[in-house]
Every structure is written in structure tokens, then in C-alpha cells.
């Protein structure tokens, strides 16, 4: 017989080991990162929505990437800020499920969107390439290069996660930070790499 779970279920998170006196500084860094993410991605989304010339497939994909970045950052950074500021390491069951769902969907969606963006640019370049214009090819390469940089950032973050967990001598704080690196850094810098060359 299965016993039902008793509510409320609360998980105790390991969290970061924050040396005394550094919690305010780390909170400020996380807040700055979150504000940069909200501002940069919000500006990109507003420009695409307002400018009718940008209502094309590539910019729709960029809007999806912006929304994805906002969801991913919002799933992790506010909780991280609470941890740094108050030292609270408990999370409710439903909150943990929602956070896990958002983080995993973020990872899948970002990879899918970046792949679709690269495919769109390749198709666009191959259609234009029929004319043999080297300027068009150069512009297409610049566009693909910026998307490639964002993709490589995600892959580097994933590689750091794998490498740090292979070495037991690496500090726990570094392992924990590397495991959320892919959701902290790229959403904050995506708006600055998403040049389309158009």
C-alpha cells in the first residue's frame, strides 16, 4: 500500500558556503546579473514587438530565446539572491518541482531555438549565395558567428560541469557555481550577442 505524502514537504538545500561578510556582495552580484538580464532581454523584446520590420522568422526566434532566457534566469536567480541575503536553505516541494521544470525546459528550449536559428541562417545564406555575392555571404557568416558564440557559451558551461564533478579535489562551491553557470551568464549576455547583421 502506498502512503500519501504529508504536506508541507520542505527540502533543505545544500546552498553555497558563504564566508562571513560576503553575503551582501554576492547578493549584489546576483541582483546585478538579474537586472542586466531583465533589462537587456526586455529591451530586445520591446524593440522586436514595436518595430513592424522585425516581424520575420529570425526575430520571432530571437523573441522566443529572450522569453526562454527570462524564464531560466527567473527560475534560479531570485532564489539564489534569497539564499545569499538571508541564508535560507529551505524550499517547498511545489516550488522545487516548478524550479526544476523551468530549468530543464530552459535547457532544452535554448538548444532547440539556437539550432533553429542556425538552420534559418544557413537556409537564408544558401538562397542568397546563388547570386554569388561575397558581401551577402560575409553578412550571413557574421550572423551565424554571433549565434555560434552563444551556443559555445552553453557548451563550455556544460563542459565545466562535467569536468568539475570528475575531480573530487575541486571545492564544493566551484562545483555548485559551475552547475548553474549555464543559466546565469548566457541570459545576461545574449542580448548583446544577438546581432543579426541586418
UniProtKB/TrEMBL annotation:
The chain crosses the membrane at residues 25-50, 57-77, 97-119, 140-165, 177-194. One of its GO terms (cellular component) is membrane. It is a multi-pass membrane protein. Coiled coil: none annotated. GO terms for molecular function: odorant binding; olfactory receptor activity. Residues 40-123 form the G-protein coupled receptors family 1 profile domain. One of its GO terms (biological process) is G protein-coupled receptor signaling pathway. This is Olfactory receptor 10G6. It comes from Collichthys lucidus.
Amino acid at each position: 500500500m502506498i502512503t500519501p505524502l504529508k504536506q508541507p514537504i520542505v527540502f533543505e538545500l545544500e546552498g553555497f558556503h558563504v564566508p562571513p561578510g560576503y553575503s551582501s556582495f554576492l547578493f549584489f552580484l546576483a541582483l546585478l546579473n538579474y537586472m542586466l538580464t531583465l533589462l537587456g532581454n526586455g529591451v530586445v523584446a520591446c524593440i522586436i514587438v514595436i518595430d513592424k520590420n522585425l516581424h520575420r522568422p529570425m526575430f520571432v526566434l530571437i523573441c522566443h530565446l529572450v522569453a526562454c532566457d527570462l524564464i531560466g534566469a527567473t527560475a534560479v536567480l531570485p532564489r539564489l539572491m534569497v539564499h545569499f541575503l538571508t541564508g535560507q536553505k529551505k524550499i517547498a516541494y511545489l516550488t522545487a518541482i516548478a524550479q526544476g521544470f523551468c530549468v530543464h525546459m530552459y535547457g532544452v528550449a535554448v538548444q532547440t531555438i539556437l539550432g533553429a536559428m542556425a538552420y534559418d541562417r544557413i537556409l537564408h545564406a544558401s538562397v542568397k549565395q546563388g547570386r554569388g555575392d561575397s558581401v551577402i555571404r560575409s553578412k550571413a557568416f557574421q550572423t551565424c558567428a554571433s549565434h555560434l558564440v552563444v551556443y559555445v557559451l552553453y557548451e563550455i558551461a556544460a563542459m565545466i560541469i562535467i569536468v568539475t564533478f570528475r575531480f573530487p579535489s575541486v571545492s564544493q562551491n566551484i562545483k555548485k557555481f559551475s552547475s548553474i553557470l549555464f543559466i546565469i551568464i548566457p541570459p545576461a549576455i545574449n542580448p548583446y550577442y544577438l546581432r543579426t547583421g541586418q
